[in-house]
Amino acid sequence: MGDNLEVRTEVQLNLMTAGYCTHREWLTIQGGSFGSVRFPAMFAYIEHPRLGTVLFDTGYSERFFQATSAFPAKLYRWTTPVYICEEETAAHQLRALGVPPERVQKIILSHFHADHIGGVRDFPNAEFYYLRTAYRPLQDMSTFRATKAGFLPELLPDRFGERSLPIEETCSKISLNEGYAPFTEGYDLFGDGSVIGIDVSGHAPGQLGLLLRATGQEYFLCADAAWSTAAYASHRLPKPIVKWIKADWRQYKDNLHRLHVLHRQRPELLIIPTHCREAEQRYVLGSEIKGDARRG
Ligand SMILES: [Zn+2]
What we know:
Function: Counteracts the endogenous Pycsar antiviral defense system. Phosphodiesterase that enables metal-dependent hydrolysis of host cyclic nucleotide Pycsar defense signals such as cCMP and cUMP.
CATH architecture: 4-Layer Sandwich
Mean pLDDT: 92
Organism: Paenibacillus profundus
Domain Metallo-beta-lactamase: 40-275
Helix content: 10-25%
Shape: globular
Distance between the termini: 47 Å
Number of helices: 11
CATH superfamily: Ribonuclease Z/Hydroxyacylglutathione hydrolase-like
Order of helices and strands: EEHEEHHEHEHEHHEHEEEEEHHEH
Radius of gyration: 18 Å
Low-confidence stretches: 291-296
CATH topology: Metallo-beta-lactamase, Chain A
Number of strands: 14
Pfam families: Lactamase_B (PF00753)
Structural class: alpha/beta
Number of domains: 1
Bound molecules: zinc ion
């Protein structure tokens, strides 16, 4: 394991949203409202000084509707209403920013739920970084079990395995310096201290968060280790009823607690959960005009 490390190479970071789903808020956080609220599927567009365009997750794409048109995957669509149109996909939005999908070299996947891998087929030249422990359990699952695990295999591109760089085998494991306690170790994804992957399992096995720094600000993109800023800031768990969709409830609770402690110790480090509306409003350009996508 390498020396105590901190994030030392800056990247450019744009947080963006590709679609959203709705859920009753009271299920997702203790004390939440009974109303149905919007959960944006954010992703990160990163420009690395040496490696070019890198994505962290992709949000939804319209393929979700095709992939959930028959049983048992249709149950996914019934329990999770999803809203996305072509103009809102990661590929379309990047193209509008002058980044053709072919230019995306690397996609880091936090985990394999459809709201994170929904757009990966749109990036034909990307190689994929993820924790082996996130993907291996899904590979031999029945369609029913995969649906329950939030995984729709047809969202992955052909030759996914050949284009993959499982992090445990490809990247150096490092000790983090004490500024990230109680998180103590991670993976130096590109070998230059620019993007550090942190195992935040619980919501899904092998779930990966990212530490990185852009324009002097340090970020921890924590994926679904918390569903909102309020959840880690005030340490509020979801309702116990959602235990059945968490892969490992004990790990989930542990990592939410770690995020809470880290936030208390270093409030200046921005912890961003993928589905946090408040973070979206603050950091995603144009987020106020989103929300009018058609329902599938
Ligand atoms: Zn998610």
